[in-house]
Specification:
The structure holds 2 protein chains of 2 kinds. Chain A is α/β, with parallel strands linked by helices. Chain A is built from 17 helices and 11 strands. Chain A starts with 6 loop residues before the first helix and ends with a strand. Chain B has 1 helix and 8 strands, in the order H-E-E-E-E-E-E-E-E. Classes of the chains: A alpha/beta, B mainly beta.
Chain lengths: ~400, ~140
């Protein structure tokens, strides 16, 4: 990295915008239809655009906004930018795209710059129906310099294997055990059983169930892997002064940070040697000062969880516990609703749906709005999302607008 | 006939790398301006941006850093169980490879490893695959 982030320039972006609307498709129904089962509300024939449009409509309704109020657009997932704008009937004044944290961060900057006031961030992905492969001969991204494609001659393939290599290294360096890791999928499954929109809402899981499940790439087991699914998510980000007139209490974007580790990525050095900690630390130096909070103030936390082990690495890298201590930290219900640091309270991508960072934003917004019943984190006022994907580390801190 | 393996990623740099392995030589690009080794092969030095390099033979020695065992098969050429390891070469680069003459029960953090070769074949032809066994 060239230099420390310029906090004097970052601070003015605090609380500039809020998330005023959220929408999701019906994940459990999407899951069944993607497997060929008929449902009333499942995905629209494996079409990413229909899924995105459905979520967008719900987000508008949730915000109490009309389509004509939207003047900015962020596009996520496999959607073609021009086509989704055309289908949604939008002529935005500004647009961007990428994963959820990038979209929210970009939207805040565009709003602060006066380029737009109300940004729709839309994501739709019929990856299950399309049979998108994240490993093996038909792996997504094949042909390029993608580490798990490059090493195919030796038999290395799949995203999961990269995280298995990381976890094995964590075990060797710090003594973390598979029994300790079990606490993550078990906690997230428990959360899913409290979430009516989670795929696994009716499938409770014990530590024993987890440990008895088959290995995929040892040391990771079946339930360390996310649920690849069809689905759509939309978020509406609006200038904070306008946000006060919306249907729900606004959820302010109070802090963010961004840092990437790409040098020697194909060698897997940032993963295996560093567990991405230098990127985490750089983000820590931005996101908490910007929001004016510390780790102790976080009431509810979510991390990207395509694999359970993401949570170990971000808890350490973001300073919720010491390096190598996450295995012990996550025990005894600490990361469950009712615990000290409830994590991925929707069930996350392991047990709600693999919506590639988008569903986590929706959940944090809902937790700060309140009223989630048994799943509600009591008195939640500050929520954090930590994103740690292929060297791209980002974080967002949301606060209750009130 | 050589052992069938999943396809290599080919570009002009990789092609040269694999040509050397045909003679059982493990050569990596080394920047002739700043001496940095790079792997996988590519067009420029990420440290000094120089396009000048030579193919420098490495010692073939390193230490074991981490490993995984496939319990679910992904490639028809590699039925489960199949183990993949990462070796940190003495020259610096991290090298994904296979263990040779080493049972999974013998895998240890920091184990000294040395280069060996297995035959391989894919759509681009026959080649030698660099693998690692415990140092003798």
């Amino acid at each position: 990295m060239a230099a420390q982030a310029d906090l004097d320039r970052l601070w003015p972006l605090k609380d500039v915008a809020a998330i005023v609307g959220v929408g999701e498709t019906d994940y459990a129904a999407d899951y069944r239809t993607a497997r060929g089962e008929a449902t009333a509300t499942g995905s629209g024939g494996g079409d990413s655009y229909v899924l995105a449009a459905r979520a967008f409509r719900r987000a508008l309704d949730d915000a109490g906004l009309e389509k004509g109020d939207i003047d900015g657009l962020c596009v996520g997932g496999p959607l073609a930018h021009e086509r989704i704008a055309e289908l949604l009937g939008l002529n935005p004044r500004w647009s961007s795209g990428g994963d959820a944290p990038r979209s929210v961060i970009d939207a805040v900057q565009a709003i602060q710059a006066g380029l737009c006031t109300t940004v729709a961030c839309v994501y739709g992905n019929a990856q299950r129906s399309a049979n998108v492969q994240y490993g093996g001969p038909q792996a997504m991204g094949g042909g390029g310099i993608l580490s798990y494609v490059y090493y195919a001659p030796w038999g290395l393939t799949s995203q999961g294997a990269l995280y298995a290599l990381m976890f094995k290294r964590h075990q060797l360096v710090y003594g973390t055990t598979e029994e300790q890791l079990a606490a993550i999928p078990v906690a997230l499954r428990k959360h899913a059983t409290l979430n009516p929109n989670a795929i696994m809402r009716e499938r409770p899981m014990t530590t024993e169930d987890y440990l008895n499940a088959r290995y995929i790439v040892e040391p990771l087991r079946l339930f360390d892997y996310c649920l690849v699914n069809d689905g759509g998510v939309a978020l509406i980000v609006q200038r904070a002064d306008l946000a006060r007139e919306r249907r729900h209490e606004p959820v302010l974007v109070s802090g963010f940070g961004w840092s990437e580790l790409s040098v020697d990525a194909t060698q897997l050095r940032p993963r295996i040697k560093d567990f991405y900690f230098p990127a985490h630390h750089d983000v820590v130096a931005q996101v908490y000062p910007m929001a004016g909070v510390t780790q102790d103030d976080i009431d509810v936390y979510a991390t990207y969880d395509s694999f359970s082990v993401h949570l170990l690495f971000t808890l350490e890298g973001f300073g919720f516990c010491g390096e190598g201590e996450s295995g012990a930290f996550i025990q005894d219900g600490r990361i469950e609703v009712g615990g000290e640091l409830p994590c991925n309270t929707s069930g996350g991508m392991l047990s709600e749906s693999y919506m590639q960072s988008w569903n986590q934003q929706v959940e944090l917004v809902r937790q700060l709005r309140g009223g989630l019943g048994d799943r509600q984190v009591e008195g939640a006022e500050v929520a954090q999302y930590a994103h740690d994907v292929a060297g791209k580390c980002m974080s967002l801190i949301y606060t209750k607008g009130g | 006939m050589a052992t069938q393996r999943p396809p290599r990623v080919m570009d002009p740099y990789a092609e040269r790398f694999w040509e050397f392995t045909g003679q059982r030589e493990l050569r990596l690009q080394r920047c002739t301006e700043c001496d940095r080794f790079r792997w996988p092969p590519g067009p420029i030095c990420d440290s000094c941006l120089s396009e000048d390099y030579d193919w420098s033979e490495v010692s073939g020695r390193g230490t074991l850093l981490t490993w995984v065992t496939y319990r679910r098969p992904y490639f028809p050429e590699y039925p489960a169980p199949h183990t993949v390891i990462m070796v940190e070469l003495d020259e610096g680069p991290l090298f994904v490879t296979q263990p040779h003459e080493l049972e999974t029960g013998g895998l240890r953090d920091g184990l000294a490893m040395e280069l060996d070769w297995l035959d391989g074949e894919d759509q681009y032809g026959e080649y030698q695959l660099p693998v690692f066994r415990p140092a003798g």
